């Protein structure tokens, strides 16, 4: 009876309390929030039009001119504006790819884990097959056939990186489906679909959430790879990846053109990774250090 | 409760004659090469409306398997094993498709499990878990079902039901969770409730409360209860009739008073004798039944209890005795039963 006294305390409250104590994760979360805000408000924040050329103003150094706070590139475009707009592109790709990854991975993982038997074998061998190919190779093959747009790039990245998520979800479901509440749900007439999506999936939310944040980081990285290789976001649209490509010819003379987008990528990936790590620790019920 | 909930039950009650549930020759033989494990071996019993039948037996006697079989809850590959009939309100559950069966589960026949700590979904509020079967089976709106869920919580004796309905299971104690489980199982007013060791995981003081609650809910809702337990004290307190299982078979079946007063099967007598009693305190050791429940390999051709039985005769080992009436309502499967 005494237990009801604690009713107002929520699961979310405990998770937040644990998360807060994870300094790096908190920092990661703030970096991510900052990046998302800057991407969202890029048109307002950017001092210039990111595609405006002015060959008279090429290779301005950073911090030299307040019209171009981070300098200009080989075509005289404002680097800060391009970084902000490029961040928009990179984060959009990252988030859309993550959603695709998580949905595909969760669906396949839950089906394989809950249905078991032949379905499990077929789906997991498919996962193994997909994992046999290096992801960049898969990406480049697909990118060669699909015209590169924001959506197609995101989907292609998403559809070539869901395999780990499906394995994580499957493992979680295998463990969850043996629990009594699943049998209880069956005993109350819940259908298979209902058990999979209403009973099991919410219980697997923690590892899925963690995988999701880590997947944003890897999708941002992937977008940079393929944009760098020229199959990704096409000029004049800026993305961190194609900014690196453009900077390639000037590494020795104007290094900041490479350093700035590189730093942006690093910051994003680290932010999401720390956030993911923190979430993992905060959500892991085995690490129950009640606050 | 409202008329909507009681109407279909009355209609069903009027339509059906005879027992609510008739289990006939239920058999689950599991091949465990090189043997066949006769986990449930020709179990037959009946259960009337509003009645509580206790199914007692040791671990491995097949009582839980019997319950899971009649709920059709066995997972593959076990799901293919059962033979026999489970007739509930005139319908043989063994012949239903999985979809037809899941329409009955939670509505006509419901189940309470042993472990209240793990039987509730940890990430769904208690109220939502009670409401869900009502939305599914009775077609109630979510709001209506949520209101009814709070009513059910009040009915199972939970103080401040509105707040508990919004709480997650980890905030409740074991006894409270079992009350919530009972509320969930009875939300659609099922004709039959299967309770598998509903009090085993609870503190002794809470056990009595839960048993009282089951009896009170039975009066309120009119469900028949199949109460599965290894604890004869639970049976004595709650059941109207008892069936004793041993090695996959029912060896004795009788009204509670008659079973406790005059057990006819030597196994039942042994079970009763091994209950500690305060009046018997001078006795230095508790009587026990010699030997062990035979494993699947060494189960004899005849009565499975014969090797441990003090009253065994030559024919006990040769041929299994049938479950035959010895007195009105009292049946036992024994060649040489104890005196009544």
> Can you list the strand order of the major beta sheet of chain B?
6-7-8-3-9-10-12-11
- What is the CATH architecture assignment of chain A? Orthogonal Bundle
Total tally of structural domains of chain A:
1
Shape designation of chain A: elongated
**Cα-based radius of gyration of chain B, to the nearest Å:** 21 Å
CATH superfamily membership of the largest domain in chain B: P-loop containing nucleotide triphosphate hydrolases
Organism (chain B): Neoroseomonas eburnea
Subcellular location (chain B): Cell inner membrane
Main location (chain B): membrane
Family (chain B): Belongs to the ABC transporter superfamily.
Structural overview:
The complex is a heterodimer of chains A (291) and B (340). Chain A has 291 residues and is an all-alpha fold. In chain A, 69% of the residues lie in helices and 0% in strands. Chain A has one domain (13-49, 66-287): Orthogonal Bundle (MetI-like fold), CATH 1.10.3720.10. In chain A, helix 2 crosses helix 13 (256-283), helix 8 (163-176) packs antiparallel against helix 11 and helix 11 (205-228) runs antiparallel to helix 13. With 340 residues, chain B is an alpha/beta fold. Chain B is 35% helix and 21% strand. Chain B has helices at residues 3-15, 63-70, 98-104, 126-138, 142-155, 161-166, 174-186, 204-221, 232-238, 256-261, 266-273, 314-318, and strands at residues 21-32, 35-47, 52-56, 83-88, 91-92, 109-112, 192-196, 224-229, 241-246, 249-255, 324-327, 330-332. In chain B, the strands form two sheets. In chain B, strands 6-7-8-3-9-10-12-11 form an eight-stranded mixed beta sheet, sandwiched between helices. Chain B is globular. Residues 1-7 of chain B have low confidence and may be disordered. Chain B: Belongs to the ABC transporter superfamily. Chain B: It comes from Neoroseomonas eburnea. Chain B: One of its GO terms (molecular function) is ATP hydrolysis activity. Chain B: It is a peripheral membrane protein.
